[in-house]
Specification:
6-stranded mixed β-sheet; 13 helices; 4-stranded antiparallel β-sheet; alpha/beta
Length: 435
C-alpha cells in the first residue's frame, strides 16, 4: 500500500459496532453542567449568575485572547456556578443549568440567507460568536485558526478521516448531513480564498464518500480526496503530508506550509452558525465498545453527563473495566461518569478488557517505535531521557513535536508506557521553561 505520510499503523477498526444508522437524539437532561474550559486557550469567565433565567443558545461564558464562548445548551435556571469534575481529571469552574424543557431560544445570533455577501471578518466574527472549536477533539478556537490563515494559505483541508478506532461520529455526520459539511466548507473557502480546497476522507467510509460526492458543488471548487486508511492520518500534520506532500517543520504550524485544516464537524458547525444562527450547543457522540449495551451515535446536548449519555444508549455491561473519553489510541480514561460531554467529546468508549501491562516493561531495542512514529521521532531515546529527567536531551530530540498518537506504544513488544511518560516529560519541559 502506498504510504502518504511517515510511519503509522493499522489497528483493528471496530467501526461496524456503531456505524450504519442515523444519529438518535438523546433524551434531554434535567441539568447540564457547562465547564468554562472547553477549548485550548484561556478559560471563559461566567457572564451569568445563580438565579438567572437563560435561553437555549444564550452566551453564558466568554473571555479574551485564545478563547471560545460557551452557550447554554438548554433553557432554564442557573442553579450553580462552581467547580465541577471535568473529563481532563480536574475540577473546572462550571455553570449548572436546571432544564425547564421549553428550549426557549436566544436570538442573538442571526441566520443569513447567503454567506456570499459576508466579508471574511464578518464570517470569523460569526464563527467566534457561535463558540466554534475544533470538533474532532483538538478544540482550538476556529476563528483564531482561520484568522491566522487569512492571506497565508493556498490549501484548505477538511479533515473527514476519523482514523481513530471505534469512533463513527464524523462518519455518521457525513452520511446524515453531508450538505452541512460541504456548505460549511464553501463558507470557509469564501473567507480564506485558497487555491485548493480538499475534503479528505479515508476509504473505509464508502457510503460517506458517495453522499459527499453527491453533495459537492457542481462547479468543482471543492475536491473530494479519498485516502487509504492508515492511523494517524487524521492528525493535522500527517493529513497535510498525505494531501499536499508538504511537511510542516518542527515547531511550526500548518500555515507555515500554506495549509489550514478544519474538522468535518467544525465545517458543519460553521454552516449552522451562518445559515441557521445556531451556536454550538449539541454534537454527535459515538457510544461504543464491547462494554456498551447498544453501540450507537447520539445527538447529545453539551453539558449532559457521561452517565446520562451512556444510559441513553442502553447503558454498559457490568464487566466494563474502563470508560474513555475518545478512542482507544488517544482517549482519556474517566474515573467519574458525572463529567459532562464537551464540544470536543466525539466518543464515549466502554471496554471490558484492560490493556495488557508488563510486570517489568523493557526496551529490547527493536526500533519498531521508530519505524511507526509519524513525526520522525526516536521514542526509545525519548523514553530513556524522560526516565532520567534529562530535559536538555528531550528538547534536543523534539519531544514537544510528539502528537501522543500512541503508535509507538501500540507497536512496542516490551509494553513500555511511552505516551504516558512523554506527557510527563512535556509537562516537565513546560515547567522548566516557565522558571
Amino acid at each position: 500500500m502506498r504510504k502518504l505520510f511517515w510511519g503509522g499503523i493499522h489497528p483493528e477498526g471496530h467501526k461496524d459496532l456503531s456505524r450504519g444508522a442515523a444519529p438518535v437524539p438523546a433524551p434531554l437532561p434535567a441539568q447540564v453542567v457547562l465547564p468554562m474550559l472547553q477549548h485550548i486557550g484561556a478559560a471563559c469567565t461566567p457572564v451569568v449568575k445563580v438565579g438567572d433565567q437563560v435561553r437555549l443558545g444564550q452566551k453564558i461564558g466568554d473571555g479574551e485572547g485564545v478563547c471560545a464562548p460557551i452557550h447554554a445548551s438548554v433553557s432554564g435556571k442557573v442553579v450553580a456556578v462552581e467547580p465541577r469534575p471535568h473529563p481532563n481529571g480536574q475540577d473546572v469552574l462550571s455553570v449548572v443549568i436546571e432544564n425547564d424543557y421549553m428550549d426557549t431560544s436566544d436570538d442573538t445570533l442571526k441566520p443569513h440567507l447567503t454567506h456570499k455577501d459576508l466579508s471574511a471578518e464578518e464570517i470569523l466574527r460569526i464563527v467566534r460568536d457561535a463558540g466554534i472549536v475544533g470538533m474532532g477533539g483538538a478544540t482550538f478556537p476556529t476563528d483564531v485558526k482561520a484568522f491566522s490563515a487569512l492571506g497565508q494559505v493556498d490549501y484548505v483541508i477538511i479533515n473527514a478521516c476519523e482514523c481513530e478506532p471505534y469512533i463513527t461520529a464524523d462518519d455518521t455526520l457525513l452520511c446524515t448531513y453531508p450538505e452541512q459539511v460541504t456548505r460549511g466548507t464553501e463558507i470557509l473557502l469564501h473567507a480564506l480564498t485558497p487555491r485548493h480546497t480538499v475534503i479528505a476522507v479515508e476509504d473505509n467510509k464508502q457510503e460517506a464518500i458517495r453522499l459527499l460526492g453527491e453533495a459537492l458543488p457542481k462547479e468543482g471548487a471543492i475536491e473530494l480526496r479519498v485516502l487509504p486508511t492508515r492511523y494517524p492520518q487524521g492528525a493535522e500534520k500527517q493529513l497535510i503530508q498525505a494531501v499536499t506532500g508538504r511537511q510542516v517543520p518542527p515547531g511550526k504550524l500548518p500555515a507555515a506550509v500554506g495549509c489550514a485544516v478544519f474538522n468535518a464537524a467544525t465545517a458543519a458547525a460553521v454552516y449552522q452558525a451562518v445559515y441557521e444562527g445556531k451556536p454550538v450547543t449539541r454534537r454527535i457522540v459515538t457510544v461504543t465498545g464491547d462494554g456498551a449495551a447498544a453501540p450507537k451515535n447520539l445527538i447529545v446536548r453539551i453539558g449532559a453527563t457521561f452517565q446520562q449519555t451512556l444510559e441513553a444508549a442502553g447503558g454498559m455491561s457490568e464487566e466494563t473495566q474502563k470508560v474513555l473519553s475518545g478512542g482507544p489510541m488517544m482517549g482519556v480514561a474517566q474515573k467519574d461518569l458525572s463529567v459532562p460531554v464537551l464540544k470536543g467529546t466525539n466518543a464515549i468508549l466502554c471496554l471490558k478488557g484492560a490493556a495488557p501491562q508488563a510486570q517489568t516493561p523493557t526496551c529490547i531495542r527493536c526500533a519498531k517505535c521508530v519505524s511507526v512514529c509519524p513525526m520522525h521521532l526516536q521514542p526509545l531515546y525519548l523514553y530513556r531521557f524522560a526516565q532520567a529527567g534529562n530535559l536538555r536531551e528531550l528538547e534536543r530530540l523534539h519531544l514537544t513535536d510528539c502528537i501522543e498518537c500512541g503508535s509507538c506504544a501500540y507497536s512496542c513488544p516490551g509494553q513500555l508506557p511511552l505516551v504516558e511518560r512523554f506527557r510527563r516529560g512535556k509537562q516537565q519541559l513546560k515547567e522548566a521553561n516557565r522558571a
